[in-house]
Write a structure and sequence with these properties.
The chain has 477 residues and is mostly helical. The chain has 15 helices and 10 strands. The chain folds into 3 domains: 292 residues, no CATH class; 36 residues, no CATH class; 64 residues, no CATH class. Helix 6 crosses helix 11 and helix 8 runs antiparallel to helix 9. The protein starts with 5 loop residues before the first helix and ends with a helix.
Length: 477
């Protein structure tokens, strides 16, 4: 008969506290995978880390207004926030987005003329479409800045003629009655159908219900930051996830500046000792005289027992720049931009600044795509039938055509290296003239070719033979 294992029974803890610890220990030992790491309840780092599942209405809809207000305040008071917002605005919108029409090359020479005709009609319609004569580019700059700081902005579009006005995100809010979420109404399938627009004081007037944009009657177009969750209907500020870090960085910087200013003002102090009476020498009756004043090269006679003590300070903090740079780097990374681009500090060699610029340019291109798909393309497609009729073209002629809006190109760090790399890519047949022209200048390669042809023809007419031949050799590369 087997003997009982006394060692195992003796090692078993007793009592409520010990049994509880024993069960937790057994649970910890038996846990594996995420239960032993990210989903663990026993590790010390997760002792007070509670994360509950919430709906998009609870996590985003209720916090949208507060995030917007805090982001606006930081934009007006934080240097880093303003630098990030201005950098995004200048990089994405810049001088504006220009329409680039590329019809099918099978149409021949008339293709270029009709491309230019469609582009000219678009420019004419959007030149003064704002309520006060603003162009679409001016409206886009203002709307995009609202998008970065406040999370979204709305375009109210009407046709015949084209008129566009902007609606601030604060003016799209849920009315006192109605099935709206933060000013947006969706159908049973989650598709946006209406917006509730309010003007004046909040809830002081009845809401004006506007429909979502359609190509026949117009309506509201919604420009917003990237949605984070399925079912989200309103955007949040670009730096929402790092608002706390932005505020702490601002407070830390101001505290260090104030400390440095106070330390600079306190140069020295007079210690009165046992026989002294204060900051200045006293007269025979013990009345304090005029305080000792500091002047260039002055000599002050002190009373017996008085000494001068210099006030030493460790301000400004020698680690101030390092601390601010570390936090700022995290904030800029959360916003999708390298810190070198935001702070305009390119202190290293060619490779690092060039990589930072290219990384930022990729971010700009993605942001431009949101403007094009949300605002420009719907308006252009609504006007396209009229443009085709005025150009004498049918809808079938648009087969194979493409429409793009081109913005500013990335700055060139080293023009010689850039042109050498462009030449090598073209010789290896791994790129096109259109792509390289747009990458270097932001211009349409077909427009550049037509302009160069006119210039070469003019040079030939003026008998500038050497210059003409040199240009022809360059064009053949």
């Amino acid at each position: 008969m087997a003997k009982p294992n006394k060692t195992a029974s003796a090692s078993k803890p007793s009592g409520f506290a010990k049994s509880t610890a024993y069960r937790l220990n057994q649970a910890f030992m038996s846990a594996s995978g995420y239960l032993a790491h990210g989903a663990s309840y026993t590790r010390g780092v997760f002792a007070r880390y509670l994360a509950e599942s919430t709906s998009v209405e609870q996590s985003l809809d209720k916090s949208t207004e507060l995030l917007r207000n805090r982001s606006r305040e930081l934009d007006q008071s934080s240097a880093l926030n303003r630098a990030y917002n201005i950098t995004m605005l200048d990089g994405v919108v810049g001088r504006g987005l220009y329409l680039d029409v590329a019809l099918s090359p099978l149409l021949g020479r008339a293709d270029a003329e009709k491309e230019a005709m469609i582009e000219a009609m678009w420019e004419a319609d959007t030149e003064a479409c704002g309520p006060n004569g603003e162009s679409l580019r001016e409206l886009t700059r203002l709307a995009y800045y609202e998008k970065i700081v406040a999370g979204d902005c709305f375009f109210d579009v009407t046709f015949s003629p084209l008129r566009i006005s902007l609606i601030a995100p604060e003016n799209v809010a849920s009315p006192l009655s109605g099935d709206f979420r933060v000013g947006v109404k969706v159908d049973d399938f989650g598709r946006v159908t209406h917006y509730a627009c309010q003007y004046g004081d909040k809830y002081s007037q009845e809401s004006i219900i506007r429909k979502k944009f359609n190509q026949q009657t117009g309506g509201l177009l919604h420009l917003h930051n990237e949605f984070e969750r399925i079912g989200q209907v309103r955007g949040v500020p670009k730096l929402s996830s790092v608002i706390e870090e932005c505020l702490q960085l601002r407070r830390y910087g101001l505290s260090e500046i104030n400390s440095a200013v106070i330390s600079a003002r306190l140069a020295w102090a007079v210690s009165a000792g046992d026989s002294g009476t204060g900051w200045g020498p006293a007269d025979d009756e013990g009345v304090k005289k005029k305080p000792i004043e500091v002047a260039d090269g002055n000599v002050v006679e002190l009373e017996q027992g008085q000494t001068i003590q210099l006030l030493e300070s460790n301000r400004p903090n020698p680690n101030l720049g390092t601390t601010i740079a570390t936090i700022a780097r995290q904030i800029c990374a959360a916003g999708g931009l390298p810190i070198e681009v935001v702070t305009k500090a390119y202190d290293s060699s060619y490779t690092a600044p060039r990589l930072a610029i290219l990384d930022a340019q990729r971010m700009y291109e993605n942001e431009r795509l949101s403007i094009i798909t949300s605002i420009y393309k719907p308006i252009f497609l609504a006007l396209l039938p009229e443009y085709l009729a005025r150009a004498g073209m049918s809808q079938d002629a648009m087969t194979g055509a493409s429409f793009a809006w081109v913005g500013d190109s990335a700055p060139i760090v080293d023009p010689v290296r850039e042109m050498q790399a462009t030449k090598m890519r073209l010789e290896l047949l791994i790129t096109t003239r259109e792509y390289e022209t747009r990458l270097l200048t932001g211009m349409n390669s077909h427009a550049v070719t037509r302009a160069r042809a006119l210039e070469l023809e003019e040079e030939r007419r003026l008998k500038l033979t050497e210059q003409y031949e040199g240009d022809m050799k360059d064009d053949q590369l």
